[in-house]
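Human: I'm a chemist; would you kindly supply sequence and structure tokens for a protein?

Assistant:
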Amino acid sequence: MIRRWVAVQRRPWARNTSSYASALLNSVKDVGHPARHLTYPKATPFYEQVKPIPSVRYTKSFLFLTALAVLLAMDVTWKYWPQKRITVTNEDGTTQEAYQPRPISHRLLMLAMHLGIGASMAAYLVNKRRIHVHKIWLLPRTVRKKQGKLSSNASPDTTMDVLVKTYSWYSPKFTFTYSPHVASLVSSGENVALRAALESGKLEDTFILKTKGALVDGEAVPEKFAKESILNAFHSKIDRFLRSSTVQ
């Protein structure tokens, strides 16, 4: 009975500790993945990539290898980058040849070069995640027009929202209202490119839709027909939407 009473008395403390630990772990996860709480539509996306390229799939591994290579290169440069061969006299009178390290300024310059190469590689890998598209939804949305203060029966208007999810760790989700002047889907080599002017007065952002491993409206498409299927499906959906909105 005493043991059972002690166990019951400890349960609230254990529960509180568990909740604090869970909150701490969630906060740590949010530091590395601040966008993990974003929500997405349950509808089938117009485009989905199920086989991302290796640089996207194994980004963390490539970043680790890059950091390891940079650290090894910096260590070797600082300790073993020689300038010239010198003769050293030992205590017993014998001599031996040794290498004199280069000046600190030379080694610091080489360390900065290694850091620059590593940072460029890391930026390249992170940017790959940003520009490669994971999913795209085409979502019609009804908007009520404003026809003055005295008009209570304003006619509704329909727009097409384009929701894009990339592989970015920090800002994978963005939405814009479709317009031919805002976005376009065009052929780009073996793949498809989404060009969108997300902010007025700035250059278009280009995002890549890989054809290998692509799903169009939830269905797998052979790679050699994927580009044509993506473009045809997109333009047919947009044309259908424009015709329906014109009829309304």
